[in-house]
Amino acid sequence: MINALRRSFRGKLAIRFGLAVLAVAVIGSSVGYLVLRNLLLAQIDSTLLRLASIEASGAAASADSTVHFHDELFLTAGPGTETVLKRFAQIWSNEGAPVLRTRNLREQDLPLSQRLRWRVVNTGELELFDTHWEGERYRGILYPLGLVGPQHELHLLQVIVSTEQAYEVLATFRNLLGVLALLGTGVSFLLGWWLAGSAVRPVMETIQQAERIEMTGDEHRIDAAAETVEMERLVTVLNSMLARIDEAFEAQRSFIADVGHEIRTPLTVLRGDVEVALRRRRSLEEYEAILEQSLEDVKSVSALADDLIMLARGESGGLAPVLEPLQVSALLQKAATRYRGAAKSAGTEIDVEAEIDLMMQADQVLIERALGNLVDNAVKYAASGGRIRLAVHEGEAGDVVIEVSDSGPGIPAEEQAQLFDRFSRGEAGRRAGPGSGLGLSIVKAIVEGHGGTVSVRGANGSGTTFELRMPASTPAAGGAVGVGDSDPIRAARQA
Questions:
Q1: pLDDT at 108
Q2: How far apart are CA 219 and CA 347, in angstroms?
Q3: Between β-strands 453-457 and 464-470, what pairing exists: parallel, antiparallel or unpaired?
Q4: Mean pLDDT (whole number) for 21-35
């Protein structure tokens, strides 16, 4: 039970609230007790001084060295002495011999410390003291009668009063304070428990709603009562997080469905070719043709797997580009040379416009992959007799701007927003022939992995321009692999 309270926010708050009130009560009670004690003892000391002064004046009233008592002063309680019921007086010689006693002492002598007696005799000053006598506590005063007359320098007056009643009052007051402190602690604990319950109620509602959330197709939202700014902010943050999770799950479901569809098609074709080949015996030439077609299907699945791995690495921050200084014009010339044959077959021309001295820090293999995807798309979509332009210039911010343009039919505005999504293929892309729809997604992952951006512009019917903005100098990422590191994906691409 206690451990459960300590582990609970509500229990912790209630316990701390109760302990805080208990600490305040203990401190207040201690201060109150000490103040009352000092007041009572001060009242007793005042009574002692008054009694001793009156009796000393009366005892030393004679012109000679004889002394006498006013017993009525000790046997009758007067105004202001109601708390002092037991009081006694005795006169001693400086040597400690008893001289006179009040009648209520009978034949007993009061307890007198020899050290105290010698100190008063030597200093000639009165002293207050505490003593125990017959099982009770007393407060006393030792008064040298020489203070009221030189003829009595050889006498000492001792007066004591009982302090038992005062200490009984203090004990009662202390017990009352203890009871009040315990009651206050209990009440404060219950009050803290109630206040904590009110404070954490929206949190508990939020927890209960969060526990009931299941990974279904429905949207997940928390609608717990947000009565405070902090709770409203918490619910807003949680709902924002849930919205991102919903988007991620939806993207994952869509991605899995798209991957399954893309892989199923070549596998279905491969399976059909194998099944047809096994139906009857065929010639060597027929088997070679089937195997060549099967190899093409396997290559298609392998390329798709390679692209998916690269996308996964790019989205998780594991693409790890190996940065090196590259001459951008050389990269564009290499891409143009690589695809010039395909462009000629399609009836298009590739032009390169580049500043020879423009340099950037990038991974050559990855950048060539991105440029290759863009040029390959431009060759596919450029109209026969059109032109493809590869250009580079320095941006206003000092970055490197690479443009890949074609004179094709362009991309409708409604398709440009999803152009870089995985497996996204517009109407023109579907008409252009087979493809996975991952090319532009890979371009985006590579460029962003270098700290750059990629965008597209151009309206329907007016051609398309892809713009890559790359940092002129990018510091190497801490997780980048070195030239000698093993990376099977890069090795496969280089091969």
A1: 85
A2: 51
A3: antiparallel
A4: 90
pLDDT for res 205: 76
Q: Determine the angle formed by the axes of helices 364-381 and 328-345, rounding to 10 degrees.
A: 30
Q: Are 404 and 465 in contact (CB under 8 A)?
A: yes
- CA separation for the pair 378, 410 (Å, rounded): 10
Asked if residue 141 lies in contact with residue 159, where contact means CB atoms within 8 angstroms, the answer is yes
Query: Which strands, in side-by-side order, build the sheet including 155-162?
Result: 98-101, 87-93, 155-162, 136-144, 127-133
Q: Which of 362, 334, 322, 350 is nearest to 490 (CA)?
A: 322
Of residues 384 and 46, more confidently modeled: 46
Is the pLDDT assigned to residue 422 strictly greater than 80?
no
Domains parsed from the chain with CATH numbers:
2-171 (3.30.450), 229-314 (1.10.287.130), 321-494 (3.30.565.10)
HEC secondary structure over the chain: CHHHHHHCHHHHHHHHHHHHHHHHHHHHHHHHHHHHHHHHHHHHHHHHHHHHHHHHHHHCCCCCCCCCCCCHHHHCCCCCCCCCCCEEEEEEECCCCEEEECHHHCCCCCCCCHHHHHHHHHHCCCEEEEEEECCEEEEEEEEEHHHCCHHHCCEEEEEEEECHHHHHHHHHHHHHHHHHHHHHHHHHHHHHHHHHHHHHHHHHHHHHHHHHCCCCCCCCCCCCCCCCHHHHHHHHHHHHHHHHHHHHHHHHHHHHHHHHHHHHHHHHHHHHHHHHHHCCCCCHHHHHHHHHHHHHHHHHHHHHHHHHHHHHHHHCCCCCCCCEEEEHHHHHHHHHHHHHHHHHHCCCEEEEECCCCCEEEECHHHHHHHHHHHHHHHHHHCCCCCEEEEEEEECCCCCEEEEEEECCCCCCHHHHCCCCCCCCCCHHHHHHCCCCCCHHHHHHHHHHHCCCEEEEECCCCCCEEEEEEECCCCCCCCCCCCCCCCCHHHHHHHC
Count Cα atoms within 13 angstroms, Cβ side, for 262.
23
What is the Cα–Cα distance from 465 to 452, expressed in whole angstroms? 17
User: Over the stretch 391-404, which tens digit does the pLDDT of each residue have?
Assistant: 998 888 788 999 99
pTM of the model: 0.48
Contact 288, 423 (CB under 8 A): no
C-alpha–C-alpha distance, residues 297 and 267, integer Å: 7
